[in-house]
Design brief:
This protein has about 325 residues and is mostly helical. The radius of gyration is 52 Å and the shape is elongated.
């Protein structure tokens, strides 16, 4: 059989194997980009290596240091000393310096700043008071400074143990001497400062204490407001129970609270005698009542009853014997 000319001259072109349309394409790297027809065929492209997985953040705090450098495994990593270690080092440095020198002042200031958390801890115990916390912190800082100036490291006592009573004591002294015992309205509190200033100015001007009318005219307010401010000023201090009562010349209230009435000692005895008296005849009851309840003498009783004094004396003796006998029986 004779083949056509085109069939004899053209080389046979192999056909790719037919694949099922339902089967997925074989896995593998994406085919290389199609090159122009004029480009020379090159070696097959190597498959791209997968990107390495990202390591977890070694420093979530954002400091830029690795976990190894920040941890205890790296001896080169800088460490911040705790407050106790820093306080001991600063006190050791402070004792070697001359007081009043700039270096001594610098170390002393560093000690104050390093122990300010101690002041905040002590001041937190007084949050329930109606005082600004800033004022309490300032007072506590004064106590801290006093503790630093008095502390002696050679005694072997930890500084927080030594300083805490001083700081708390300074705060308590502030509340005792400066805080009102009775709540005063804010308006009177602000007006009290003006009244105090006007009182000092007028005292210097006139050479005597000003009257309420003069203070009111100076401040252009009513006299009742001046009186109210003066009453509010007294709320800073509570009257002591040991203070004498004003104007009556009597001892203090505390002296009278525990006063014992001597008559109280005889109350129990009188109740007992009254219980025993009902066992005596009526005449003897009356004689005892006149003698010991009305404090009459035997002569007065004899005149009252029309009896002789001797007879009254015998009746009293007999009545006492009966009362003693009845008391023993009841006991």
């Amino acid at each position: 059989m004779v083949q056509p000319l085109s069939a004899r001259t053209a080389p046979p072109v192999p056909c790719p194997p037919a694949s099922s349309p339902a089967s997925p394409p074989p896995p593998g790297p994406a085919p290389a980009a199609t090159t122009p027809a004029t480009a020379a065929p090159g070696p097959p492209a190597a498959p791209a290596e997968p990107a390495p997985a990202a390591d977890p953040d070694p420093d979530p705090g954002g400091s830029g240091e690795s976990a190894e450098s920040a941890g205890s495994g790296d001896p080169e990593a800088p460490r911040k000393p705790d407050s106790r270690t820093l306080t001991r080092a600063l006190f050791a440095e402070l004792t070697a310096l001359e007081p009043g020198t700039p270096e001594h002042t610098r170390v002393r200031t560093a000690l104050i700043e390093a122990n300010l958390p101690l002041v905040r801890y002590a001041a937190a115990r007084f949050r329930s008071r109606n005082e600004p916390m800033e004022d309490v912190l300032q007072v506590g800082t004064i106590g801290l400074i006093h503790a630093i100036d008095r502390f002696d490291p050679a005694r072997g006592v930890q500084f927080p143990t030594f300083a805490m009573p001083t700081v708390i004591g300074e705060i308590k002294r502030y509340f005792r001497d400066n805080v009102r015992t009775v709540h005063v309205p804010r308006r009177l509190h602000e007006l009290w400062a003006q009244v105090s200033g006007a009182t000092e100015d007028l005292t210097v001007r006139h050479g005597r204490a000003p009257t309420t009318a003069e203070i009111a005219a100076h401040l252009k307010i009513g006299e009742e407001e001046v009186r109210a401010c003066r009453e509010a000023g007294r709320s800073y201090y509570a009257t002591s129970l040991e203070a004498a009562q004003e104007g009556d010349g009597m001892p203090g209230l505390l002296d009278r609270l525990g006063y014992e009435d001597p008559a109280l000692a005889g109350v129990e005895h009188r109740d007992l005698v009254r219980h025993l008296l009902v066992q005596l005849p009526e005449r003897e009851q009356r004689i005892l009542m006149l003698r010991y309840y009305r404090n009459m003498t035997q002569s007065q009783i004899s005149a009252e009853l029309g009896l002789s004094q001797m007879h009254v004396s015998r009746l009293l003796s007999r009545s006492f014997a009966r009362l003693r006998s009845a008391n023993r029986i009841d006991s």
